[in-house]
Amino acid sequence: MEHVWAGQVAEDSKSKRQQILNAAYDVFSRKGYYRATVDEIIALADTGKGTVYNYFTNKEQLFCTLIQERGDPFQRAMEKVAASNLPALNKIEAIIKLTLGFYGENADLWRVLMHEVRGFGCGTNQANLSPETLEKYQHGFASLIGIFEKVLAEGVDQEILRPINLSKVAYSLFSVCVMMVYQNLVDDDIDVTARNIASVFLYGIARY
Asked: What is the pLDDT of residue 10?
């Protein structure tokens, strides 16, 4: 009986934590990090302030946890594709599809991350996050671009892509994916969009 009760308590705790994270996603997505308040998150989560601070030290930790828990599965999926035995061109299309899907599902929150935290690479920190947190995000973004670069490098090794500046190419391909999402240019069939991006990016639009 004690095991059943303990299990229920653990499940309730997990549910409450997720309820807070869901509320945080909504508030941060609508208001941005800087203008969002913990009180708004508490009200939306319909819980007490003490409960929130039982799980999260402050707004920054809550935001960081939200970003990590939503971003980690995407990162793992990208790494899995990069480590697979697929041909390089298939890998490129696969990581494009994953990127479109992830940013499509998390567009508002990641817009906050890019504008307020990364400043689109301009070194700004509108959210006033700690240096440790900023370094963590910079490392995470570099790791993501590194996956694009790794897959592109395989294409060079297989002599199907030209040996040009792969870092710039990786940034360019990532940027195309994100802008397609933010400009609402992704088709209902995400496979079609991923295939079209890969085709135009790799082969261009010229008629030979």
From this structure: 52
